Amino acid sequence: MQDILNDVEYEKFRKLIYDESGITFSNTNRSILDSRIKEMLRVKNLEKPEDYYALVTSNAEELKVMLDSVTTNLTRFFRNQPHFDAFINYVIPKVIELRKASGSSDKIIRIWSAGCSTGEEPYTIAMILKEILPPDFSFQITASDISLKSLMVGQKGFYADAKVEGVPADYLTKYFTKVDGGYQVKKDLMDTIRFDYHNLKNDSGLRNLDVVFCRNVLIYFDEPAQRAVVNKFYDDMAKNSFLFIGHSESLFGMNTKFEFLKTDWACLYQKNE
User: Fold this and answer.
1) Strands, DSSP E only, in the chain?
2) Can you tell me the distance from the alpha carbon of 55 to that of 134, in angstroms, rounded to the nearest whole number?
3) How much is the average pLDDT of 5-25?
4) At what angle do helices 30-44 and 7-21 cross, to 10 degrees?
5) How far apart are CA 249 and CA 241, in angstroms?
6) Which residues contact 13 (CB under 8 A, 6 or more apart)?
7) How confident is the model at residue 1 (pLDDT cuts 50, 70, 90)?
8) Helix, strand, or coil here: 139?
9) Would you place residue 2 in the very low, low, confident or very high pLDDT band (cuts 50, 70, 90)?
């Protein structure tokens, strides 16, 4: 199949996407970008890539739509269970222990699900916290993504039958309502999560975060962009806080202040001040 983009056009779109989001396309995944642009030309009823380039560089909303179209949103409830085992057995008990030891009156656990896709990850976190937090503690979850379509799915909180595979039966009964074609997240769980559009190249405005989940997102960035994102996380996080990244991702060799942490359940990173 012939590419829709010639070399000059490909480089213009590749650079625009990188400059605006940090997402990196190389020759190995050029075909993905080519297919996405071809689809957007069809949707927008445009003939040439240069017409679409002119549109996205002159219209901020169209640029958002394009960035949305080039992302891949693969997720599921309780994805990579060892991470959640570490979250349950080590991270949250440690956050509570340190909070109490410092004499702080702050009883709110602040969590960011960065690159939350269609919401399965933040809802998983919320269900766990509902189960394990002491009654005098509460939590706030911010769930963000660059994909507006994905965020809308998360905000609606409806998941088809196949999508809830992996949710424990008692959680499914407790936190979901069975409806035609799938399951609807109950309102009291939905109310614990704030879904928000966010481009990781920009400041999130979030501060004093106890835990950040940013899993299977850094793989889309080159090392300078990865480092910039990770350093922003560090600045946004509280003392003695924790960072989860994808099991195939690593900060090894990257110049960051995070410390590698190996628990009995999974490996993660800690801001240890």
Assistant:
1) 108-114, 138-145, 158-160, 176-179, 182-185, 193-197, 209-214, 237-245, 259-262, 267-271
2) 52
3) 88
4) 90
5) 19
6) 5, 33, 37, 49, 53
7) very low
8) strand
9) low
Q: Enumerate the β-bridge partners of residue 108.
A: 138
CA angle, residues 219, 220, 221, in degrees to nearest 5: 90
Measure the CA–CA gap between 38 and 5, rounded to whole angstroms: 8
DSSP 58: T
pTM value is 0.85
- CA atoms lying within 13 Å on the CB side of residue 203: 5
pLDDT band at 5 (very low <50, low <70, confident <90, very high): confident
Q: Where are the alpha helices (DSSP H) in 70-212?
A: 81-86, 92-101, 120-132, 148-156, 169-175, 187-190
Q: List beta partners, residue 93.
A: none
Structure tokens, 120 = 């399965």
Mean pLDDT, to the nearest integer, of 218-224? 85
> What's the confidence (pLDDT) of residue 249?
87
Sheet holding 158-160, edge to edge: 158-160, 182-185, 176-179
Q: Quickly count: other Cβ atoms within 10 Å of residue 71's Cβ.
A: 19
Tell me: pLDDT of 235 over 60.
yes
In what side-by-side order are the strands of the sheet with 267-271? 193-197, 138-145, 108-114, 209-214, 237-245, 267-271, 259-262
Most confident of 149-153, 187-191, 200-204: 187-191
User: Would you state the torsion angle of the CA atoms of residues 199, 205, 209, 211, taken in this order, to the nearest 10 degrees?
Assistant: -10
Alpha carbon distance 257, 139 (integer Å): 26
The answer to whether residue 104 scores a pLDDT higher than 60 is yes
